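Quick one:
INPUT:
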């Protein structure tokens, strides 16, 4: 019943865009999880990925550039009964929004972040982002990108994320499985998705040549050391669950302020009279 998460709007992404694969995998995963549209909140940032909020039938919030995680954190703390999923792009999450990722990870706030990583600013027609490979010629790096790319998986692991995974938008069944596991995980789940930009950085062929599944090589996701080692691989591209561990979630360490959570508190009629008197 993935259709119940379909708004019926026709996506405006370019033909062949990796965002299509993520959209299909997400709708299928939400249906498999037995969720209803009213149970789910999707927060999206700025970039081509941000259109997800128009195509998934759920509560959606298309927020300002780089601020997916603060929004998602506030929503989850206010109403812990909701399933909160943030969608961000590599520009949104790793450039302007970078300050939020390590802190969401170390807090272990019980939300999922799915990063659509196409290694380029697609919406603004092809400039370099923090994950653009070194040497790559883009609109903003006409002599080749002089910077080493960021390693988001290594960063998430080092920041204390309790679930770290990577998927590929060109392998929808595998990605669906990863989204199901990420949403089921209790705590901060970080899912990086290789999402080729068909127009400005088409790497489908290269990814297909280099990709392999961690589970096919007996990877143990309980080992942080193994997860770090796999995250540092350069020649091949591992996908699957790198790391998963159970730890208390942020709300449990914050019960003095969050019990009951704000969304479940009775509404008290407020009078603006005293405030008016004070400032008039
Ligand atoms: Fe997708 Fe790239 Fe087109 Fe954006 S510019 S919609 S990322 S193919």
């Amino acid at each position: 019943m993935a259709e119940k998460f379909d708004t019926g709007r026709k996506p405006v992404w370019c033909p062949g865009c990796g965002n299509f694969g993520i959209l299909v995998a997400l709708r299928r995963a939400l249906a498999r999880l037995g969720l209803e549209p009213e149970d789910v909140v999707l927060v999206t940032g700025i970039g081509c990925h941000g259109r997800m909020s128009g195509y998934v039938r759920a509560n959606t919030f298309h927020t300002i550039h780089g601020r997916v995680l603060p929004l998602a954190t506030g929503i989850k703390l206010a109403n812990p009964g909701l399933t909160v999923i943030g969608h961000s792009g590599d520009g949104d999450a790793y450039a302007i929004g970078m300050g939020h990722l390590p802190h969401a990870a170390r807090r272990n706030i019980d939300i999922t972040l799915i990063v659509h990583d196409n290694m380029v600013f697609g919406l603004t027609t092809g400039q370099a982002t923090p994950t653009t490979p070194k040497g790559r010629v883009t609109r903003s790096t006409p002599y080749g990108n002089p910077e080493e790319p960021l390693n988001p998986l290594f960063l998430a692991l080092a920041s204390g994320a309790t679930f770290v995974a990577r998927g590929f938008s060109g392998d929808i069944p595998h990605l669906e499985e990863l989204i199901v596991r990420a949403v089921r995980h209790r705590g901060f789940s970080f899912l990086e998705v290789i999402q080729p930009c068909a127009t400005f950085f088409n790497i489908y062929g290269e990814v297909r040549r280099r990709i392999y599944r961690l589970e096919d090589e007996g990877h143990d996701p309980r080992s942080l050391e193994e997860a770090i080692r796999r995250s540092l691989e350069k020649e091949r591209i591992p996908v699957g669950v790198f790391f998963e561990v159970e730890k208390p979630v942020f709300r449990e360490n914050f019960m003095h302020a969050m019990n009951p959570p704000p969304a479940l508190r009775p509404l008290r009629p407020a009078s603006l009279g005293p405030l008016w008197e004070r400032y008039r």
